[in-house]
Design brief:
The protein is globular. It is an alpha/beta fold and 296 residues long. The mean pLDDT is 93. Strand 9 and strand 10 form a beta hairpin. The protein is built from 12 helices and 13 strands. It has a single domain, classed as Alpha-Beta Complex (Spore Coat Polysaccharide Biosynthesis Protein SpsA, Chain A), CATH 3.90.550. The strands form 3 sheets. The protein has a 5-stranded mixed β-barrel. One of its GO terms (molecular function) is UTP:glucose-1-phosphate uridylyltransferase activity. It catalyses: alpha-D-glucose 1-phosphate + UTP + H(+) = UDP-alpha-D-glucose + diphosphate. Pfam families: NTP_transferase.
């Protein structure tokens, strides 16, 4: 894997959900450890594909935020050496991959979310680890495939390195799929190819989206939605902590999108249409489609 130097050194991957939509498989193993086959033909857990995406963007250290009950599963994969009996059975080229996994494991930090209180709460659990740096935020059940020579994550990191403000990866989504997406509005900046965001909304209904979230240049039934990659300044942690103290919940949980809108109002925020595809592995049908299509 080619190393890239970056101003952004850290990535956070929340992986603390119960995985109820993938039950009963998630009774056996965390959904982030479900297998996927990559282009190289290697079967790997989803979390490794996400970590590799981060490393391809120049990320040096990665925090996985998980439940205490799942912590051992992640530590076993990233931190525990193979048993001697297992190591003696694998092929020579697989031994090389064992050494590669050890180098990836050196970058991994396992954090715990004491209570499951939403995506925003999980992100906030990484506050002390991230410190005062900008960081890449990735979803624990999404994997990415770029259509450019650089990865999707690297595309977003480069946006931050250009503008110095928080940025959200975006994609175009048809109206009928809007109900399960974060959605944005804003104004295109032709000189940068970015969109200066004017609103970030969590799973808006279609009437609201048509009235408030239209973006010039898109077809009537198309909207800009969140791709699943974020590049955020550390100010997001202050906002999330305040929302937790105030009990500011949406749909019963501490939501990240609420804090993103507050962050946008305070510091400004950009959106970037990433050139690539995001594969959602968090529900049975989309997981099956991801297994089928990710390698292609």
């Amino acid at each position: 894997m080619t190393e890239v130097k970056s101003q952004v050194r850290k990535a956070v991957i929340p992986a603390g959900g119960f995985g109820t939509r993938l039950f009963p498989a998630t009774k056996a193993i965390a959904k982030e450890l479900f297998p996927i086959v990559d282009r190289d033909g290697i079967a790997k857990p989803i979390i490794l594909a996400i970590a590799e995406e981060a490393i391809s963007a120049g990320i040096e250290q990665i925090a996985i935020v998980t439940r205490e009950s799942d912590r051992a599963q992640f530590e076993d994969f990233f931190k525990t050496p193979l048993s001697e009996a297992f190591a003696n059975k694998i092929k020579p080229h697989q031994k090389e991959y064992v050494r590669y996994l050890e180098t990836v494991g050196e970058r991994i930090n396992i954090l715990t979310q004491p209570v499951q209180d939403g995506f925003g709460h999980a992100v906030c659990c990484a506050k002390d680890w991230v410190g005062k740096e900008p960081f890449l935020l990735m979803l624990g059940d999404h994997i990415y495939r770029s259509t450019r020579e650089i990865s999707c994550a690297r595309q977003l990191v480069e946006v931050y390195e250009r503008v110095g403000k928080s940025a959200i990866g975006l994609t175009v989504t048809p109206a009928e799929e809007l109900y399960h997406c974060g959605c944005v509005a804003g104004t295109w900046q032709p000189e940068t190819g970015l969109i200066n965001l004017s609103e970030v909304a969590e799973k808006p209904d279609l009437n609201y989206a048509r009235s408030h979230l239209r973006v010039e240049g898109l077809a009537e039934n198309d909207f800009l939605t969140v791709f699943g990659l974020y590049l955020l300044t550390p100010k997001i942690f202050e906002i999330l902590e305040q929302n937790i103290r105030d009990g500011r919940r949406d749909r019963g949980e501490i939501q990240l999108t609420t804090a993103l809108e507050q962050l946008r109002q305070l510091e400004g925020m950009y959106g970037c249409c990433l050139q690539g595809k995001c594969f959602d592995t968090g529900v049975p049908l989309s997981y099956w489609q991801s297994v089928r299509d990710f390698r292609l």
